[in-house]
UniProtKB/TrEMBL annotation:
Entry protein name: Trypsin
Domain called Peptidase S1: residue spans: 6-157
UniProt KW keywords: Disulfide bond, Hydrolase, Protease, Serine protease
SMART domains named in the record: Tryp_SPc
GO annotation (BP), single: proteolysis
UniProt-listed Pfam families: Trypsin
The species this protein was found in: Ancylostoma duodenale
Annotated GO MF terms: serine-type endopeptidase activity
Family the UniProt entry places it in: Belongs to the peptidase S1 family. CLIP subfamily.
Top-level lineage group: Eukaryota
């Protein structure tokens, strides 16, 4: 797979449905606020969806954006698969107001399982091959609706 960073117009839309499952779809950056994707990818309210840009892999997004709103083609029909097009507006500029993740940091958590008040400084733990807990990182910060960001500079994994 080519790295997305080679194609700055490439984005990924992640939407969660009511069963806590998600859909990952490709998207195209149209301008600093909008991306273009397939309408069938819009499966949840905007607050349950995220845009990733500047990716080198799906596990390493350089910019994570909250979705403000969707504009689905009025003639979209999922059964006939016609007019399968939608615009997605990011709540702030796609070129500003993002969370930068460096190669010394990692994201941990999942939907509804991230950091909260008082978590800063706490460990990210995992079990090694023989079952011992090993510290992988230190909780550094989080942002509303996003997983926790962990500083790996002390624990380069």
């Amino acid at each position: 797979m080519k790295y997305y960073i080679e194609y700055p117009w490439q984005a990924v839309l992640v939407s969660y449905d009511t069963t806590e499952s998600g859909m990952i779809c490709g998207a195209t950056v149209v301008d600093e606020y909008w991306i273009l994707t397939a309408a069938h990818c819009v499966i949840s309210p905007p607050e349950e969806s995220y845009i990733f840009t500047g990716l080198t892999s799906l596990s390493n997004p350089q910019h994570t954006h909250r979705v403000e709103r969707f504009v689905v083609h009025p003639g979209f029909d999922a059964n006939l698969i016609i007019n399968d097009i939608a615009l997605v507006k990011e709540w702030s500029s796609l070129s500003r107001g993002t969370i930068m993740i460096t190669d010394k940091q990692l994201c941990a958590g999942s939907k509804m399982h991230g950091t909260g008040p008082g978590d800063s400084g706490g460990p990210l733990l995992a079990r090694d091959k023989i079952g011992r807990l090993v510290q992988l990182g230190i909780t550094s910060f989080g942002a509303a609706g996003f997983q926790g960001l962990l500083d790996q500079s002390t624990y380069p994994g």
